[in-house]
Amino acid sequence: MTTASDPSYPDHWEADVVLRDGGTARIRPITTDDAGRLVSFYEQVSDESKYYRFFAPYPRLSDRDVHRFTHHDYVDRVGLAATIGGEFIATVRYDRIGADGRSATGPSDEAEVAFLVQDAHQGRGVASALLEHIGAVARERGIRRFAAEVLPANSKMIKVFTDAGYQQKRSFEDGSVHLTLDLEPTAESLAVQRAREQRAEARSVQRLLSPGSVAVIGVSRSLAGVGAAALRNLRDSGFHGHLYAVNEAVTRDLLDGVRAYPTLGAVGAPVDLAVIAVPADRVPDAVAACGEHGVQGLVVLSAGYGESGPEGMARQRELVRQVRSYGMRLIGPNAFGVINTAPEVELNASLAPAPAPARGRVGLFTQSGAIGIALLSGLLRRGEGLSSFVSAGNRADVSGNDILQYWYDDEATDVALMYLETLGNPRKFTRLARRTAAVKPVVVAKGGRHTPAGHVVPGTRLPEATVSELLRQAGVIRVDTVTELVDVGLLLASQPVPAGPRVAILGNSESLGVLTYDACLTEGLRPLPPLDLTTAASPEDFRTAVSAALASPDTDAVVVTAIPWVSEHALADDLAEALRAAAAAHPGKPVAVVHVELGALAEALSAATAPTATTDLADALPATLPTPATALAALGSGSASEAGPAAEAVPASAAVPATEAVPATAAAPFRPEPTSEGAGSAAVPAPGTARIPSYPAAERAVKAVAEAVRYGQWRRGVAEVGQVPEFEDIDESGAAGQLSRLLAGVGEEEAATLDDPDARELLARYGIRVLSTLPAPSADAAVRAARVLGYPVALKTTAPHLRHRADLGGVRLDLTTEAELRRSYEELTHALGKPQELLPVVQSMVPRGVDTVIRSVIDPAAGAVLSFGLSGVASELLGDTAHRLVPATDKDAASLIRSIRTAPLLFGWRGSDPVDTPALEELLLRLSRLVDDHPEVVGVALEPVVVATEGLSVLSATVRVAHPPARGDLGPRTLPSY
């Protein structure tokens, strides 16, 4: 029998999961080493639960029971345990059974399953998580059905089975409920799984952001350093819960006015969140103390982990393992912290000093503390507040995916802003982003074009333009700079989403209006001719013009341009009030303002009429984080005269990564100076006061409007949900069996290219027919092949350097006689090389049409991707290729073939006959299904695909296969492992 150290131990079944209440547990196979844990676990289970499990009083396990429940072959008998702190809290076991219900003595695809959950952990969703994982294990071992006997009074366990979403049968026999579950995933079971995942992960983030008590571990007695800064910010933010300071050398009851203790255990009260600010070598002791005390989550500010090299990465992995072993979640390490401005919480467990930022409707997530400072500063200066802020540093545990789960149904967040360097689980990110974007905007600036230190997620193999396109298909508003992140976020947070691309432009500068008009055309908008109000225009003239533009049925958005009057400051407040009044009278359309050297106007537009609350954003910031000047420079802010359009933005890829060290020193305080974008004020408009975003350059305002327009178009498009069609002729099980055989000799980390016969057979199982080819190593062999296929035929080379290169003379078409074939063979070999070098083949001729290429690849930063383009120069030289995420719907397939620039060639360009695009769409959908159903298929290239007026022909296919990852996005719920 196996132990965890044996080679046969299935370690890929190990997983960390988030439970219903937001805590975590470890699921792993039970081994022979677990006898003591099993006995201890069973002793803590109530007599009632034991009765439900064994259908009779069963006070203790016999030695035989313990042996049976800890010895498994991991094929016919499998046991899994859910553990916290290394101890069992629940178990599940299956035994393969035959048709008679007894242990199977031959092949069988059915197993009996049984659960036991410790009473203290019932109601946390442990059994549901175990059912997902034992079901995945069973499918892997060839089991297709579970059978279970449950006492009628055991309603909780019956509900676990009935709520799982699997197809099932239910009967009442011999005083018990007999349940049979078909383990094949269904749309309902997947929906149930993802709904549970969302609730659990959102709850885990909520526990971090809304604690009832916080302890800061590592507060120096001198009140200097990161720990003291975090404590001060928590205290000054007005946190509504209990606050404690922990320092092992503390000699007094209070530190900076907060109750202080030498150890966490001495607190004597529950602690929900711990902020750890001690050197990295002391963090394990702090984590252990938190776990023993029952802390729910950690924010680790300490540096010295993945960002510092291989040794630090090993330390980071051990940190995650230790944190999760206690059922906790972790933000960090090397984190900047978290903020929650909810009035019932008012938490600032970060290095951003209280009381910044103000309460608002924007959620902000960053992987970089430096970029977090820049974004907080930019939002602050321009009058926007936050609902929540998470700067996750190395994001070893809690990631952007978790935050998206929280924001999805967070009523306090209307717009989600994210600065990301990697996507973590890309397939999950696009899935969550698509769902979240359907209810609120998700704006992402993505840096880290290459894998940064501190992250173990591989970079993408796709061009940046392709990644951006795929994110946009998921509804993500992808921007290139952190400046644009703020610009777009401000517009979406304060203005309605435009109903279309028609933009009215008006203002008191004809030249600025023309610049705005040009910018609109560049962004693909439909601007109306600019309305010049002349430099003599008064605030009332602006109000009248804006009101008319907003009331017009011919406009979807309004951009106002303004240059200074002689007495700018005297009129700025009046103009701001006039614009707000016009916007308030017509609230259905967005308004943006472009101003030149009108800092007072920007301040008036963003600020409330009530007294403002200024904030020192950099009080107690770590010295190695950027200074205010560099943080603002990274944001790309400043007056129009200081930074023109060409200099105003720093690309997200050039931003400081999320791996800055956090030393135990604090920088001197600073106060942001007012710029033409807005004042250094945390004020937000009073209730009922319309806030209008303003920009110091026309390009920036128009870019924000254009992104809002494109987002609105996407929102309207997703209302018409596409379908992933079912094809009755697909042989999914046959394909799975074939792939299993083909991968038998392939290494775990290797990929293999299938031979032509195997590739044809696999594709044919999904209704994709590849035209037959016959080898022609000699002229006589070519003639024999032509006789088999029938004239006319094509003669082509298949050598890698000549494949698909008709321009080099490696293809001869429409050969109707033996003489033509022999002559072409001689010309081919004479011009290009010997037959053994050219690898010539003979193929039947097909109806002429448009040559296209269809590919599918698994990209580490985007997941499964389906690509389409015209074969040859258009796609290879000009990059005219379109992409969609897998699984593609019928709507995706239709839009895919129409989105390339050369698409008119498919639809009758210059009087040619339109080709059979429905057949092309069906081929795309069949390939998408193949890749989605079988993650072993890591690459497919169909080239060329000749699309005729009726039907199409796939002339060549290349298929690459590899062992799939142990856990994918379609598998059971699991946290990423590091």
Sum up the structure in keywords.
seven-stranded mixed β-sheet, 978 residues, 21% strand, alpha/beta, eight-stranded mixed β-sheet
Describe the structure.
By secondary structure, the chain is an alpha/beta fold. Helices cover 33% and strands 21% of the residues. Strands 1-2-3-4-5-6-8-7 form an 8-stranded mixed β-sheet, sandwiched between helices. Strands 11-12-10-9-13-14-15 form a 7-stranded mixed β-sheet, with helices on both faces. Helix 16 (539-551) runs parallel beside helix 17. The longest helix is centred in the N-terminal third of the chain and has 23 residues, at 187-209. Residues 453-458 and 608-688 have low confidence and may be disordered.
The percent of residues in helical segments reads 25-40%
Q: State which percent range the strand residues make up.
A: 15-25%
**Radius of gyration from CA coordinates:** 32 Å
N-end to C-end Cα span: 28 Å
Quick synopsis:
The protein has 978 residues and is an alpha/beta fold. It has an eight-stranded mixed sheet, sandwiched between helices. Strands 11-12-10-9-13-14-15 form a seven-stranded mixed sheet, sandwiched between helices. The protein starts with 14 loop residues before the first strand and ends in a 16-residue tail after the last strand.
